[in-house]
Amino acid sequence: MNKDKKLKETLIGDIEGLLSLYEAAHIRMHGEDILEEAVAFTTHHLTRVLPQLESPIKDKVKRALEHPIHKAVLIIEARLYISIYEKEKSRDEVLLKMAKLNFNYLQNLYTRMSSPNSPVRIAISKSIQLVAVADDTYDNYATLEEAQLFSEVLERWNVDEIELLPDCMKTVYQFIMSIFEEYERDATKQEKSFAIPYFKESLRPNYVPSPIYSIIFMYVKQLAWAYIKELKWIAKQELPSFEEYYANSLITSTAYVIFIALVPGMKSVTKETIDWLLSEPKIVITTNKMSRYYDDLGSYELIGQDLNLKLKNTVRVSVLSEDVDHVIKACRIRESVGGTMLTAVDCYMKDLGVSKQEAFSKIVELIEEGWKILNTEWITNTYSIPEDMLVQLLNYVRVAAVAYNNGEDGYSNPRVLGPYIHALFVEPIFV
Predict the structure, then answer these.
(1) Phi-psi category of 341—alpha, beta or left, where left has phi over 0 and alpha has psi -120 to 50?
(2) The Terpene synthase N-terminal domain covers which part of the protein (predicted)?
(3) Which CATH number fits the domain that encloses residue 43?
(4) 302 φ, ψ to 5°?
């Protein structure tokens, strides 16, 4: 630092040092002004010098600018780094060989249903299937009346009422019931039967928790009714306030359903851990918000000069960058209404009377603020819960950051995450 508390320009010539500082600065917390300056300084100079670099340092810098390690899925970064490190002239051949063997061993474990982490992976997959089917049903296939009926039947949780539903929704209801039955069997098998009522109630409507779970106020609300609220906004062509939109979208993000689904496969998790999750600690709320922010930004679409162009004319663009000028004309389209918009950007513009550029910049700012909160909660860790639960929360945001980065919706578009999946599960490293 110089006398003005600015980073010295002499650092620019040390690319490896600049890159290390860049990575370290992303673990900053609120009030760490030096690290704040370091992020801006290193990002600017690494971006500027990137075209002049040669491989392998160029590959390292390019990857870091796209996915800082702290905000990335670590096993993906490890796999990619092995290929980069292999090009290093100063590489340690023994270390490189051990890294390759270790990765191939892990890859073999990943493809086995009986690996130690299989119960967690299977539970997450089932819960994502459940919410994906429910979300698409409300968004794309059900009328408002049918969605209302489906929510009422789901609320009563009585399989005999399935006959009240249209034929197409009977299949959906049966699917949801089957997921619960599988979850109960898995929870019992893993001696975590205490988790069963929590998982059910996190999806049932009008659930009123007992006082023991009401530390501030209970998060658990009915997912289906949150979908109904969205449908009513669209049907009435009402634009909710930014806060109202996000309050509802934090429910439809379904993070709690997925978190609780982890329980049977995690040996360290107890009933107290679930009670802690439902008490809305800051790290859980921030994780939920972060996933929604990434989802919203990653799902935006550039639709040309006219914001009323039809959906078929849309193309994806990036919004997670320092410069958001090129996405001013972006907006998200709800598939179910053929062009009616329900976006956080529009809600923020309405509330604050700001431009689309300012709204985009604000949400990017909220993401960065969220990372500072997560870093603080993760580093200080005053919670009396298993550490691996905190790691799962951090990894949840990391997955969202990767899935919705570079202007692509990795949740909806398999081509985004496909190369990563292939590298992790299919393609071994030649030793």
Answers:
(1) beta
(2) 2-65
(3) 1.50.10.130
(4) -80, 125
Q: Do 260 and 120 lie in a common domain? A: yes
Residue type present at position 255: A
Say if residues 175 and 165 touch (Cβ distance below 8 Å).
Answer: no
Strand, helix or coil for residue 315: strand
Domain co-membership, 200 together with 255 = yes
> Among candidates 354, 402, 370, which has minimal Cα distance to 76?
402
Task: Say whether both 307 and 428 belong to one domain.
Answer: yes
Same domain membership, residue 153 and residue 50: no
CA atoms within 13 A on the CB side of 269: 26
58 closest CA partner among 25, 92, 87: 87
Number of compact structural domains in the chain: 3
Q: State the Cα–Cα distance between residues 366 and 17, nearest whole angstrom.
A: 29
pLDDT in tens, 182-202: 766 766 666 655 555 555 555
Output the domain CATH number for residue 122: 1.10.600.10
Instruction: Give residue 55's domain range.
Output: 9-110
Side-chain half-sphere exposure of 145, counting CA atoms within 13 A: 2
What phi and psi, each to the nearest 5 degrees, are found at residue 316? -75, 150
Cβ contacts of 268 within 8 Å, gap of 6 or more: 386, 388, 389
Give residue-wise pLDDT tens across range 372-402: 999 999 898 888 888 888 888 899 999 999 9
Tokens of 63: 């990857």
Tell me the β-bridge partners of 328: none
| Angle, CA of 355, 362 and 279, to the nearest 5° | 140
Same domain, 297 and 403: yes
